[in-house]
Amino acid sequence: MTSRLLNLAPALSPQRWALARGSRLLGLVLTGVLLSACAVGPDYQRPELAVPQQFNAVDGWTQANPSDALERGAWWELYADPQLNALVAKLNSNNQSVAQAEAQFRQAQALVRNARGAFLPSADLSVGKTRSSQGTGSSNSSLTSSSSGIRDTLNAQVGVSWEADVWGKLRRGLEANEASAEASYADLAAMRLSQQSELVQNYLQLRVIDQQKRLLEATVEAYERSLKMSENQYRAGISGKDAVAQAQTQLRNTQASLIDLIWQRAQFENAIAVLTGQPPTGFKLAEINDIPKLPAIPVSVPSQLLERRPDIASAERSIIAANANIGVAKAAYYPDFSLSLSGGYSSSQYQDWISVPNRFWSVGPKISLPLFDGGQRSAEVDRNEAVYDQTVAKYRQTVLDGFREVENYRIQLKVLGDETVVQEQALESARESLRLTTNQYKAGLIAYLDVVNVQTTALSTERSVLNLLQSRLIASVQLIAALGGGWDGKMEVSER
Known about the structure:
The chain is 60% helix and 10% strand. It has 496 residues and is of the alpha+beta class. The chain has a single domain, classed as Outer membrane efflux proteins (OEP) (Up-down Bundle), CATH 1.20.1600.10. Helix 3 runs antiparallel to helix 5 (169-235) and helix 9 (376-442) runs antiparallel to helix 10 (448-482).
C-alpha cells in the first residue's frame, strides 16, 4: 500500500497526498478493529437450580430441557363438554386480557426489528429553503433597501450514516430485545392459559350448582309431600301441631337454600361472559343434566413442568435479556466508531439549482469516547447487574412455586378421591336410613322429628358429595394449568 501511495505522490499535491495516506491508515485501523470485534459483557449461563428428581406423590420422574413451545393441545376437551369447548374457542378469540398480552408481544417484536435495523446504515433526504441576513457593518445601513443583505439558499441533501458494532453493543441490544420478545410470547401463553383455566373452573362450578339445584328442587318436592302428610295426620288426630311446624321449617329452609343458588350461578355466568369478551347482560347458559366427567391425570415429570409452564419460560428469558443488558452497559466504556456520508446541491436560485457547480459532499469516519461522566456508566453497569440478580431470584422462585403448586394439587386430588369414596359410602347409609325412618313414621312407630333429623342428614350428605366432586374438578383444572396446560400422547396416563 505504501508503494502505491509513493507512486501516486508526484501526481498529488502535498496536502492531498497526506490526506489520502491518513485516510488509508485510518481505514486499516478500522478494519483491524472490526475484524477483532467482540461483544463485551458476560455470555448467558442458565442459573443453577436444585430440581427434585421426583414429586413426593409420584415415582418415575426424569430431567429434560425446557421447551414451552411444545404443542399443548385443547386440554379442556378432556372434560368432554361441547358447550365448554365452544366457550373456550370464544375466549381464545375475544378475551381482552389475552388481547392486551398479544399487543404487548407485538410491541416486543417491533423492538426486535428496530434493534436489527441499527446494524444497517441509515439514510435521510432533506430539501429546504432558508433566508438569511447579515449586517453591512455601516452606520448608513438604515438607508439601504429592506432587501439589502438578505440571501435565499436552496438545499437538497442526502445523508448516510453507519455505526460499527465494534464492542457488541448493538448485538447485545438485539440479544436483549429478542429475549424480551420471547419472554413476552411466554407471557401471552401464560395469560391465555390462566384465562382458559379460570373459564373452565367457572364453568365446572356452574354445572355443579345446576346439579345442586336439581337436588334441592327434588328435595323441596319431597318435603312438600311430607308437609302435606303431616297436615293430614294432624287433621286426623294422629300427630300433633309440632310435626306440621317441623315440616314447614324444613321446607322453608330448603327453599331458601334453593333461592341462594340463583345469585351464585349468576356470578359464575357473568364471569364466563366477561372471559369470552361478552357483556353479562343478556348472556345465558342453559342448564344441562350432566356434570362433566373428571379426567384421568397423567403421570408427568419435573422436566415437563419446566417445558410446559410459560411463566417459568418467561422468567428464564428475562434473565437472558438482563444478562445481555449488562453487555450493553459495559460497551459504553469503549469508543463508538461511525462513518457518515452526505452530499447534495446548494444554490441561491431555482434556476440551475441541481447542477454540477452547485453540488457539495462530505465523507469521513468518527470516533467518540466520553472522557468523564461522573460515574454514570459505572452506575448503569451496577444497576443492570442488580437487575440480573433480581431476575435470577425471580426465576428460581417461579420454579419453586411451580413445583409447590403441582405437589399441592396432586395431593389434593388424591385426598379428595379417598374422601369421596368414604363420603359416597356415607351417602348410601344415609339414603337407607331415610328409607327405613320414613317407613317407620308412616307406620306410626316414631315421631316426625326423627324423620326430619334423618332427612337433614341425607340432604347434607348429598350436597357434600357434590361439593367434593366440584373440588376434585377444580383441582384437576388447576393441576393441568400447573403442568403448563395439557400433555402429549407419549406420556403415560394413570387411572385413578
